Task: inverse folding
């Protein structure tokens, strides 16, 4: 069937067990809200339009505490408003999925045009330190796959998971074969096995992620965005706070392979490697195909997970490739991460485009030529 | 029900979280005890009761009670509470907020919760100041009162929280005060059993800041001052032998207030209204659950570039918003997919729903489509001069360009086959309106190019537009076929 990216997200969310959606209309994400409003009520779920994006993520967190898998979707300006609640979810470890269909910014920018300018907002948009997961699909089929994955990661690690794609991926329709929902491997958050009195809400008990009780289920507990101890009570004890911070960071680092996803195209003998995600990776993929057919030894590294960033893989490529070329639709965001991972072992150049237009294969070919790849003309 | 006098409050408290953070003379502890008396008296199931609060002194009191308690972000407790209530309507969700939390930073959420009439109990503890941050001015600070940020006296008028919530649609609105604690638990109990958005403003005191800055004395003096500012009480409080003060006889920093239940109405609670709307929706309007999908693994992007590229036909359809450009593109892509080929459809548009520029890009191939946007087109349809001028130069050598002869004056271009046909006029002739020009154009484009077969296009049109509407759409598409055939004859 021919399916739109945003529609695939809604279908995947429902198939992944999402039963609560709260959102606020914003281009180019609104199709997700519209599809959720159709899909959820017949399945016993709730879709609600809130008064703003702050309220939307607040409602999602409330519903998640009540035991529902929950999601919201927005675009850059709304994602900015949600940041305080992203941080709250990270601190209190409430699972949630936040979709940001990126449009050109800053500010209101170009509401109907694609961009990839929210990569750093996804990582550093909140105050304080916390890890985050951000996934970046590059096709409609992958929107489906990674939306399911986002719910699984949110539940397994009790973390907010951000789904980032650009307006092109959100609105493009592609031919996809969706899996039978019954065949999906779905993850549910661990619920406490202890009796209510014996349970300590934030005691990990040797696991990286503590079990979580639904509000109203009989386990009474306190949730706060203040630094908290294993009972969930506010604390200013430096040792307890340091332990909480360390655990919050360790829980994602522990199962890196489960979280850090990527794809390589023609990397084995590649002398110059393009690093790109989302629709930019589609342009890069075409450019790499054209260049290969002209005899150039080039490849594509495509992060499917942007956060945590696949730095080890980039470091490995930097040891083998003659140059890395980063192509992204912003003024240079993941290029800094690539430079950090490459650590000077190979030159890193960037091809940036932030004019509201998708990166074109010609842009990537031009960047490859700039990196010394011959015979592309 | 257990008489309040017998209540041992400790059974509801997290004593291991004590000592609490409230200052001596603060009124919020009086409110906490009134809440617990009301809960106890009603015998609400303890595990079904959830307390949600924001940020501020008042919001801290929920931490000390042994229920499910949620201490959220500044101003946002009603948003979390809305999610909790919609997810589990059987829960009693009580929001404890302050005047800054609920009326300044969270004021938008308050009016919308009231408008929705969602079944929450919202207790707003009004001490007329920001206590936790040091006594700054609040939206409830009375005019003339001194605060840390208004040393010469507040010049902004204060909100009347109860009138605000009643005006926004709240269905239970009451005001109590810490100086009348016995009546206070009655008001809270009434709010807890109200089926809808129940709001109680509770006048409390901050002797540490508001009292000190305005020379109002300590806790006892401020409580006494509360009583003096009461204009009237309702029957419920009168029964508790609460006597109104002398508000009309004196000025002072606190405005005169009425106490008791100030507004009551009945209309459907939000989650119940949602359920009722769903039950009442006629089956035809109720979107069906999507049918079971074929059991196939998600089609990913293949890992290695193909040794040779499968031929692609890149089609750009351009015109003005409202001309049906996006629909024409969709029909073309659906026709290709239904015929077993691969296709993508991308759209570009301005902020206008009608007018402005509109563009659809369709790629048809028998192989992988790596890049889903059209950089330069093999087929270009332009239904407006602006679209033609914008895109005529972005075509490949050997491209085919189709324009509406009545709207577009094409320029001669080498290596490009340009066809100017009366697309709009034909739509008007066949359908009686120019609105079907997109379908005539689609028919002509297919007839000129064979990007998909005519049969595939007709099937796609018929599938998308059932009944009479399909008949009319097919008329337009076939008129497009005929335009091309007539030109060739």
Result:
């Amino acid at each position: 069937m021919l399916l739109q990216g945003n529609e695939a997200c809604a279908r995947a969310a429902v198939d992944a067990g999402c039963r609560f959606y709260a959102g606020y209309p914003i281009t180019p994400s609104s199709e997700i809200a519209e599809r959720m409003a159709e899909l959820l009520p017949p399945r016993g779920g709730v879709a609600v339009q809130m008064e703003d994006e702050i309220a939307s993520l607040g409602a999602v967190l409330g519903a998640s505490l009540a035991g529902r898998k929950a999601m919201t979707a927005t675009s850059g300006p709304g994602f900015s408003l949600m940041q305080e609640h992203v941080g709250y979810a990270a601190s209190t470890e409430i699972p949630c999925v936040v979709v940001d269909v990126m449009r050109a910014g800053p500010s209101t920018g170009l509401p109907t045009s694609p961009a990839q300018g929210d990569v750093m907002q996804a990582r550093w948009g909140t105050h304080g330190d916390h890890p985050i997961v951000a996934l970046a699909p590059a096709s409609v089929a992958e929107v489906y796959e990674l939306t399911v994955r986002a719910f699984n990661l949110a539940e397994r690690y009790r973390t907010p998971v951000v789904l980032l794609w650009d307006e092109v991926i959100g609105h493009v329709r592609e031919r996809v074969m969706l899996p039978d929902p019954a065949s999906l491997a779905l993850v549910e958050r661990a619920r406490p096995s202890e009796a209510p009195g014996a349970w300590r809400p934030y005691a990990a008990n040797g696991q990286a992620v503590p079990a979580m009780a639904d509000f109203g289920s009989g386990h009474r507990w306190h949730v706060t965005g203040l630094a908290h101890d294993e009972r969930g009570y506010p604390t200013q004890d430096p040792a307890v706070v340091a332990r909480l911070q360390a655990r919050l960071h360790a829980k994602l680092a522990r199962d890196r392979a489960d979280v850090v996803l990527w794809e390589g195209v023609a990397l084995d003998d590649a002398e110059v490697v393009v690093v790109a995600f989302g629709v930019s990776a589609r342009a890069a993929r075409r450019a790499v195909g054209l260049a290969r057919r002209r005899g150039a030894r080039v490849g594509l590294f495509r992060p499917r997970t942007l956060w945590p960033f696949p730095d080890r893989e980039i470091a490995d490529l930097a040891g083998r490739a003659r140059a890395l070329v980063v192509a992204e639709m912003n003024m240079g965001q993941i290029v800094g991460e690539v430079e950090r991972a490459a650590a000077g072992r190979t030159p890193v150049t960037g091809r940036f485009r932030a004019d509201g237009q998708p990166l074109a294969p010609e842009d990537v070919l031009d960047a490859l030529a700039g990196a010394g790849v011959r015979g592309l003309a | 029900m257990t008489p309040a006098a017998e209540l041992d409050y400790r059974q509801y408290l997290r004593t291991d979280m004590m000592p609490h953070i409230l200052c001596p003379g603060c009124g919020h502890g009086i409110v906490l005890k009134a809440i617990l008396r009301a809960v106890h008296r009603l015998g609400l199931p303890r595990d079904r009761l959830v307390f949600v609060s924001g940020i501020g002194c008042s919001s801290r009191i929920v931490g000390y009670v042994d229920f499910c308690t949620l201490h959220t972000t500044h101003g946002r407790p009603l948003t979390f509470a809305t999610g909790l209530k919609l997810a589990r309507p059987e829960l009693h969700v009580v929001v404890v907020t302050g005047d800054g939390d609920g009326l300044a930073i969270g004021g938008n959420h308050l009016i919308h919760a009231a408008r929705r009439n969602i079944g929450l109990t919202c207790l707003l503890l009004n001490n007329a100041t920001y206590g936790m941050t040091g006594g700054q001015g609040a939206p409830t600070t009375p005019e003339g009162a001194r605060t840390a940020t208004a040393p010469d006296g507040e010049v902004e008028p204060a909100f009347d929280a109860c009138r605000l919530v009643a005006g926004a649609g709240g269905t239970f609105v009451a005001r109590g005060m810490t100086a009348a604690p016995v009546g206070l638990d009655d008001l809270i109990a009434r709010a807890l059993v109200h089926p809808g958005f129940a709001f109680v403003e509770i006048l409390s005191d901050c002797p540490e800041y508001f009292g000190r800055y305005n020379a109002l004395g300590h806790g006892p003096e401020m409580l006494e001052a509360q009583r003096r500012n009461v204009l009237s009480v309702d029957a419920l409080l009168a029964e508790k032998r609460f006597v109104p003060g002398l508000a009309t006889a004196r000025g002072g920093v606190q405005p005169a207030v009425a106490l008791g239940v100030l507004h009551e109405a009945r209309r459907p609670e939000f989650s119940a209204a949602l359920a009722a709307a769903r039950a009442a929706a006629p089956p035809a309007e109720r979107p069906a659950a999507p049918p079971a999908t074929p059991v196939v693994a998600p089609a990913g992007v293949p890992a290695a570039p193909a040794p040779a590229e499968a031929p692609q036909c890149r089609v750009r359809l351009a015109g003005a918003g409202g001309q049906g450009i996006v629909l024409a593109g969709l029909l073309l892509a659906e026709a290709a997919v239904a015929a077993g080929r691969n296709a993508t459809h991308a759209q570009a548009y301005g902020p206008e729903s009608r007018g402005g520029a509109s563009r659809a890009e369709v790629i048809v191939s028998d192989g992988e489509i790596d890049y889903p946007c059209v950089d330069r087109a093999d087929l270009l349809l332009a239904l407006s001069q602006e679209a033609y001028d914008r895109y005529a130069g972005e075509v490949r050598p050997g491209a085919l360009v189709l324009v509406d002869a009545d709207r577009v004056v094409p320029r001669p271009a080498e290596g490009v086959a340009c066809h100017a046909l009366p697309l709009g006029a034909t739509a008007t002739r066949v359908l009686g309106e120019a609105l079907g020009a997109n379908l005539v154009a689609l028919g002509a484009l297919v007839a000129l190019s064979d990007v998909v077969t005519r049969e595939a296009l007709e099937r796609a049109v018929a599938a998308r537009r059932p009944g009479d509407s399909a008949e009319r759409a097919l008329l337009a598409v076939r008129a497009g076929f005929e335009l091309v055939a007539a030109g060739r004859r």
Observations:
- The domain at 261-370 of chain A is CATH 3.40.50.920 (Rossmann fold).
- Chain A is about 40% helix and 20% strand.
- Chain A has a mean pLDDT of 97.
- Chain A has three domains: 2-183, 196-257, 261-370.
